[in-house]
Amino acid sequence: MADIFVSYTSSDRDWAFWIGQKLDKLGHIPHIHEWEISAGGDIAEWMNVRLQKADHVLCVVSAAYLTKDYSKLELHAAQWAAAGTRPNFAFPVYIDDCEAPVMLAHLKRCDLLGLSEDDAVFRLEAYLRPAAKPSGPVPFPGAAKSAQAPLAPPVPVTFPGGAPDRGSGTRSAPLALRSPGVLSRAEEAALAAKDEFQEGVDFPVMVVIPAGTFTMGSPKNEKGRLADEGPQREVRIAKLFAVGKFPVTVEEFRAFVAETSHDAGWAAFGWNGDRWELQEGRSWRDPGFAQTGSDPACCLNWNDAQAYAGWLSTKTGKTYRLLSEAEWEYAARGQTRPGNYPRYFFGDLQADACEYSNGADQTAREQIPGAENWPVLPCRDKYAYTSPVGSFSPNAFGLYDMAGNVWEWVEDCYHDTYKGGAPADGKAWTEDKCDTRVHRGGSWGDDPRSLRAANRGRGNPESRVGTIGVRLARTLNL
Ligand SMILES: [Ca+2]
Asked: pTM of the prediction?
C-alpha cells in the first residue's frame, strides 16, 4: 500500500477520479484534492503536506495538463521532494498522445489511450506494482490505523476512456517504452533502431542505435581542434546496439550502491573558486553542488563505471558495458554515413549550444565563484553545475546530453593518435594495462571546444572528478 498524490488538471477530473478509485481498490491511498479539501481550502498548504508525505506522485498527463502553470509547479515540487531521497517517485500516466515533457521524459510511462476499461486497469496495476512494495521500514501491523482514511469518491466513477473502437483494429498505440523488465529473447530480436527499453525500475532507459558507417575524428581545419583527434578514418558499426538515453543518474547509481554497498570513495576533484583540487568528503553523494536525483551521477571513476555495468549485467543476465570510444562518437554524431560533419552534433554555431547542452556558459560565469575568466559559451543554458538529464534537446538518435553536463567514461585506453591500431569496426582499443582511459562529451565546467563531437578527454581510471560520470551501452543479441 502506498500514499499516492494524484496531480491533474480540472478538465481531466474524470480520469483522475477513475484512477483514484482504482488505486483505492488496489489497496493504495489516493490523494485527490477535490476529495480531501473543500472549496476555499488552502490548496497550497494541502499540496505541500501531501507531497512531503506521499510515497509517489501519479501525474495524469494530457496536452491540457502540460499547459497549466500549476502542473509545472506540482512537477517541480515533486521533483524537489524526491531529490535524491525517493527513487521511482513519479509515475506519469498518459491519457492522450501528448509528448512526454522534459521533466517526465526519463521516467517509464503508462499509456491508457485507446484501451478498454479492463485493459486500462490491468496496465495501471502492472505499472504500479513496484509501488506496492514498501521501500522503508514496515510498521507493526497491529498498530492502530490512521483515522485519515481517504474519502470515497462522491459518486461511482465511470471509465472516461469510453468503449474502445473494436472495429478499427488499432485498439492501442504501441508503447513508446515497454514496462520495465528484462527483455525476452523474442522481444530483443524484434528491436529496431530508436526503440527504447528499460530492464528494471531503477535501471537506465536504453535506446537502440542503428548500424552504419561514419567518419571518426575531426578534419585538420576544424575550429578548436586538438592534435589527438585524427587522423580521420571510417568506422563501421555493423550491428544494432543500445545506448543509455541519458547519462546514469544519481537515483540509478544510488540503487546500485544501496544493494551492493559499492565503495565509490570519499574524495574527488572539485573547483575551489581558483583551481581544481582534490577535496575530502566529495563523492557522487555530495559533489560540492546541489543535485536532484535526476541529475547525472558524477565523481565516478572508470572502475566505479565498470562495477555499475557489471552489476546491471548480473541483475539482467545481459551484457551492459561501457561504450567503445568509436561507438561513443558514432552515437554522439547521430550520422550513419561517412562525410564531413559539423563540429558539434547540433551544428557549427556555439550560440546554439545552450539548446542542446549544458556547457560552461554565461550562467556558469555568473554563478560559479571564480569562473569570471572561464572561456564560456556565448549563450545562457540556465545551469551553473549539472542539470537534470534530458533538460536539453536530443540528437538525431534520440540521445540526450551527448554534449556537456558530465563527461562519460568509455572503455578505451588513451592513445594520442588514431594511427597505429585504432579499430575500424567499433571495438574498443585497449591493452592489458593502461594508465589513462578516455572520457567523452565535455561537461558543465569545460571550455566550449570540449563539447565538439571529436573532442577527447582522458584521465587516470582511479580519478574521481565532479565533471565526470558515465553512460552505458548494452550489447544486443539479434
Ligand atoms: Ca551550464
From this structure: 0.66
pLDDT, tens digit (0-9, with 9 covering 90-100), for 49-67: 787 778 888 899 998 888 8
Q: Which residues contact 206 (CB under 8 A, 6 or more apart)?
A: 196, 197, 198, 199, 242, 243, 244, 245, 472, 474
Residues 27 and 2: their CA atoms lie apart, in Å, by 8
Neighbours of 365 (CB within 10 A): 17
Instruction: Report CA(359)–ligand 1 centroid distance (Å).
Output: 4
CATH number for position 9? 3.40.50.10140
Q: What is the pLDDT of residue 275?
A: 93
CA 133 / ligand 1 centre spacing (Å)? 38
Cα 354 to middle of ligand 1, angstroms: 8
Q: Which of 356, 313, 310 lies closest to 333 in space, CA to CA?
A: 356
Mean predicted lDDT score pLDDT of the chain: 87
In a domain, 176, yes or no: no
- Averaged pLDDT, 186-212: 95
**Gap from CA of 296 to ligand 1 centroid (Å):** 14
Distance 244 CA to ligand 1 centre (A): 22
> Per the structure block, which three cell numbers stand in for 147?
483515522
User: Which are the contacts of 234, defined by CB distance < 8 A and separation ≥ 6?
Assistant: 213, 214, 215, 216, 338, 424
Are residue 121 and residue 208 in the same domain, yes or no?
no
**Centroid of ligand 1 to alpha carbon of 232 (angstroms):** 30
Q: Give the domain extent around 7.
A: 3-128
Do both 120 and 251 map to the same domain?
Answer: no
171 located within any domain = no
pLDDT, tens digit, for every residue of 171-194?
A: 333 334 556 899 999 999 999 999
- The reported pLDDT for the residue numbered 138 is 54
- The SS3 assignment for 34 reads helix
220 found inside a domain: yes
